[in-house]
Specification:
The chain is mostly helical and about 260 residues long. The chain has helices at about 1-10, 25-40, 45-65, 75-80, 90-110, 135-145, 150-165, 170-175, 205-220, 245-255, and strands spanning about 180-185, 190, 200-205. It has two domains: about 1-130, DNA polymerase, domain 1; about 135-255, Orthogonal Bundle (hpI Integrase, Chain A). It is built from ten helices and three strands. Strands 1-2-3 form a three-stranded antiparallel beta sheet, with no helix packed on it. Helix 2 (about 25-40) runs antiparallel to helix 3 (about 45-65) and helix 6 crosses helix 10 (about 245-255).
Amino acid sequence: MLWDFAWHHQVFKQSSLNSRKFSTEYRDAFEGFLLHLIQCGYSEGSVRTFRSRLFQFEDYLFNNKIFNLDNLTSECLNEYSKTLGSFSPKTVVRKLRLLQHLLQFAYENEFIAEPLSPIIPKLRIPRNLQLPTVFTKEEVNALLAAVDRSNPLGKRDYAILMLAAGLGLRVSDIIGMTFDEIDWSKKLLSIVQQKTGKLVELPLTDGIGWAIIDYLQNGRPESECDHVFVKHCAPYDVLTPSMYRTVQKYLQKAG
């Protein structure tokens, strides 16, 4: 949000995906594009992520008084790309790739008159900018030790990192975890992976279990959301998949 304000002197809307709908100006194009992605075989979790990114793009368009895709210009798209500077390199590439596919779909289905997808730069992710896929035991311990567990946000981040490090869960599966997926009596997690759609059952170890309990009892804000991990600012709903920056922050603290 601060990055948005720094670039555009305005803050874009932060809305829940559960109730929000696309505006009438963009509904046909965006919903048609998402349906196209479903028909191409993308998973429900991926399409949910794409929908979230389209909402962010829609907010940018409205805040810049662009009420029709046909009014897009190369300058507008270039300015939008600048708003992505606070995201990880991988996220930037994925957001721009989605925008490129959207513009191609819009041109082929006559939502725009000119082909704009070639304007979007084709970026690659430098390997040295990615987080390592495997950490040593010492690195994991240093990462966890860098978390300040004396405050609610630290308790949440610590539990999330414990799940990622201890069970190898994807961030999307952790932030999508609901209370009914935890069987405390059997010390078992039963999660449908968002990327594969497959059910996996994993042991809830004592260390991970107590980290979650500490967060639920002493850190989690009051919320009717059925997800275990929630935002710590109103409306206290589902987290967004931006843990790259969280992990990067603790890696820097850990040295």
